[in-house]
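Final report, Chapter 2: Outcomes

The project's central promise was a pipeline that accepts a single protein chain and returns its three-dimensional structure in a standardized token representation, suitable for archiving and comparison. That pipeline is now operational. To close this chapter, we reproduce one record exactly as it appears in the project archive, with the input sequence first and the structure output second.
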Amino acid sequence: MIDILAWDWTLHVATNQAVTRSKARSLALDYGRDFNLHGRVRAPREHRGKDIKVTLSPFGPNVRFGRGGQQHVGELTARPEGSDFDFEATLILPAAAIATTATSLASRWKHIQIKTDGAKVSAYFFDAGIHPNLEAWANAD
């Protein structure tokens, strides 16, 4: 479980040099609208207080999951000592959920739970509060 401390919604624009001729590069753009979250780990207890950067990257309608498609919804990695963050997670988000995600981050969501299978993220959830069933785990000393 991660407490969301701050977030930003960024726009990245770049030329896609891999698919364009040199004279046409100004016309072929790659762009993305990522959410960057700064959080602090609340649970599990052995990582409590560590900083984490979470990037939510939108995906379009052509992405498929399951057999023959994506098997996970993100990755979680420990950063080397001396980095700005102790952990970094990249999670994918349906592009259709961008507006509601921005609204919910601004008004309601305070926590994110990430379920992992090793370094792969199998699920994630946003919460406005800590569910009573998780309070002892999230606040354990």
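Archive annotation: The beta strands are 2-15, 29-41, 51-59, 74-78, 87-94, 111-117, 120-127.
This record, like all others produced under the grant, will remain available to the consortium after the project formally closes.
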